Amino acid sequence: MGNQVEKLTHLSYAEVPTSDPNGFEPDDDGPRIGVSYIFSNDDDDDHDDNFDHFPSDNKRENHEEKPFDPRNEMECAIYYREECIYERNTGAPDISETLTAESLLNNCTPGDLLEFVAAGQYPHWAVYVGDFQVVHLHRAEIKNNFLTDVSQGKRGRIVNGLYRYRALPPEVIVRNALDHVGARDRELYWRNSECFAAWCRFGKREFKIGGEIRIGKQPYRLKLHFTEKKSHVLEFQSLEDVIMEKRRNDQIGKDAVIQELANHLNATHEIKEQHFSN
To answer: pTM of whole model > 0.85?
Structure first.
């Protein structure tokens, strides 16, 4: 394999120990361990968009055929040990409301983090750097494009408040982004557009590839909220891994996540019944 990075297929919930989405722990369950994405590539590459040219009318129509539905968005929180470092509440006005690219331009200031969303796709993050432009990681390259081109007809929102880290000054955020324009392939230190954009704003090494050593106990927890009384928790060894799982959930949607968990719990119940019957 050498230095080439290969993309591994994501393991389903049926292949990892997990917990009851009701929040109750069976006495004989193992630890709630999430999937490690050590060899995964940038998940934004799964969509063959070309941000270097104006999007065609056909692409805009494709996004409109499957409008983003915030009701199918997974509410979640990320904890490092006992500290909440990320929280998405779909009822919050800044999260539930998405805007056209043109409307976003009227609300952006340099240093803002932007998230473009569409049903069935990974969210795409970018840093607004002023003059109607953003810097973003796409298809293994960091690019500087006009915001309206990057949107590709998707709706977007400003997501400065999702991560609870202290933001760097706006001029530093912009410089972090612009200094890496043109970096590609092995020059990259980020797994996906979200990790790159968040690093530009917060400067935390945890957003970088290999920023943390995956040894010992999983200090990160991803808590998925289904209702006020029902939730599910997965544990991870690095923030990078948590973000990859969170983004996968964003891509498949809340309904699919619930179905995966239900299938896993049913399979686990059947295995236990077979074990005790023997």
So the answer is: no
Q: What is the dihedral of CA 43, 47, 51, 53, to 10 degrees?
A: 160
Is a pLDDT exceeding 90 seen at residue 30?
no
Quick one: pLDDT at residue 273? 57
For the stretch 160-166, contacts whose Cβ atoms lie closer than 8 Å and that sit 24 or more positions apart, written own/partner, are 160/112, 160/113, 160/201, 161/94, 162/86, 162/87, 162/88, 162/95, 162/113, 163/85, 163/86, 163/198, 163/201, 163/202, 164/84, 164/85, 164/86, 164/87, 165/85, 165/202, 165/204, 166/202
Answer for the pair 186, 42: CB distance below 8 angstroms, yes or no: no
CA distances from 240 to 20, 135, 141, 148, 160 (A): 24, 20, 18, 28, 18
pLDDT digits (tens, 9 = 90+) for 186-238: 999 999 999 999 999 999 999 999 998 877 788 999 999 998 889 999 999 99
> Based on C-alpha coordinates, what's the Rg of the chain?
19
Instruction: Tell me the C-alpha distance between 10 and 181, whole Å.
Output: 29
